[in-house]
Amino acid sequence: xxxxxxxxxxxxxxxxxxxxxxxxxxxxxxxxxxxxxxxxxxxxxxxxxxxxxxxxxxxxxxxxxxxxxxxxxxxxxxxxxxxxxxxxxxxxxxxxxxxxxxxxxxxxxxxxxxxxxxxxxxxxxxxxxxxxxxxxxxxxxxxxxxxxxxxxxxxxxxxxxxxxxxxxxxxxxxxxxxxxxxxxxxxxxxxxxxxxxxxxxxxxxxxxxxxxxxxxxxxxx
Length: 221
Fold this sequence. Notes:
By secondary structure, this protein is α/β, with parallel strands linked by helices. It has one domain (2-216): Ribonuclease H-like superfamily/Ribonuclease H (Nucleotidyltransferase, domain 5, 2-Layer Sandwich). It contains ten helices and five strands; from the N terminus they run ααβββαααβαβαααα. The chain has helices at residues 2-6, 15-22, 83-89, 93-97, 102-113, 123-136, 149-157, 165-171, 182-200, 207-216; strands at 26-35, 45-55, 62-73, 118-120, 146-148. Strands 3-2-1-4-5 form a five-stranded mixed sheet, with helices on both faces. Helix 7 (149-157) packs across helix 10. It is globular. The protein starts with a helix and ends in a 5-residue tail after the last helix.
């Protein structure tokens, strides 16, 4: 979790601080989710972790802003205590019990992301689980743009294979403090995006160009 990684005292940045930061640079959000499984119909969202990247308009200067981050565990109505379930999301019974009510987490998340674009590795799954959570909480889902980091890595690597984040970490020489935990996966995905930016700038000078590349290089099975 971000608190453990960076000795932060708060899981999410105060909105006024976030707004002040964003006035000086474009703001992108990199996120990852933990869920009770991989089924879009049976399983549910259990955790969201996200961190902001602040960039200059030409994409030449980009920094991960750890102080501009969000992390929350959703307290389930009924906790599944089976070890095989906990092994999926790595969030124990104690952490789940201490989590926050889903509607409040999603409202806080909406406030924090603002209108920033949302990046995730294999983003369609995260997007679907997040939107399902908003629907179940009877909340209007934010209309932020979602961009998949996986096809951007395909463009930089010049291949169309559908590979895992672990494969790309190895390829780009990255390590994750806590793989398969939302906060750890979020941070290494942000690092991957920053590492790829010099190559991506060859064809993209702004967010619109990044979005186009992601759509053109959708991985194949």
